[in-house]
């Protein structure tokens, strides 16, 4: 009986010693083990330990080419002031007075006039035109019977002379229809069709010019 008890004591001691050794070895190895999810984790756990994809950058509606002044540019869209109707038969012209200082655009909208009565086209001439001369702060200037084009402040919608109304209005669409200038508040402009000084009375047709203002 004593021999058997002694054997069990020896075995127990050996087991305790082995367990102590295992614990000691585990404590020594633990600091060197990689930190991360267990390779034995459940099926709902992720094993991806690679760096996460970067979050997409926050975007706005502004395109790369937009500048901070876009809003300001939108505020500079020309504002319509009025339409001027320049009759081919009016030898005095139409006066416009600038209501405010700034940049003005004078834009051909439509129309034409003839320097002869409507039946003048049968004479083999080119009576239809769209040209409008503009004079600043004064009356229309003449060289005898002829209008003084060189003294004009602006010359608008010049497309040349054509035999028919349709042809001249098609031609002006291919030209620059805008003229731009700076005016002070109170400046007066006179717009007039182009013909001989005593030849306006029987001229049919009209030209419409839009006046636009660009805010400062």
Terminal CA distance reads 118 Å
Poorly predicted parts: 1-5, 27-74
Approximately what portion of the residues adopt beta-strand conformation? 25-35%
Instruction: List SSEs in N-to-C order.
Output: HHEEEEEEEEHEEE
Let me know the largest β-sheet: 5 strands, antiparallel
Residue share in helix: 10-25%
Question: What Rg is obtained from the alpha carbons, in whole angstroms?
Answer: 46 Å
The count of DSSP E runs of length 2 or more, i.e. the number of strands, is 11
What is the mean pLDDT? 76
- Output the structural class: alpha+beta
Number of separate helices: 3
* Broad shape: flat
Oligomer: single chain
What is the topology?
Layout (H helix, E strand, L loop, with lengths): L1 H28 L40 H6 L3 E9 L6 E4 L4 E13 L13 E2 L2 E5 L5 E2 L2 E2 L6 E3 L8 H8 L5 E6 L4 E6 L11 E10 L2
Antiparallel strand pairs: 1-11, 2-10, 3-4, 3-9, 3-11, 5-8, 5-10, 6-7
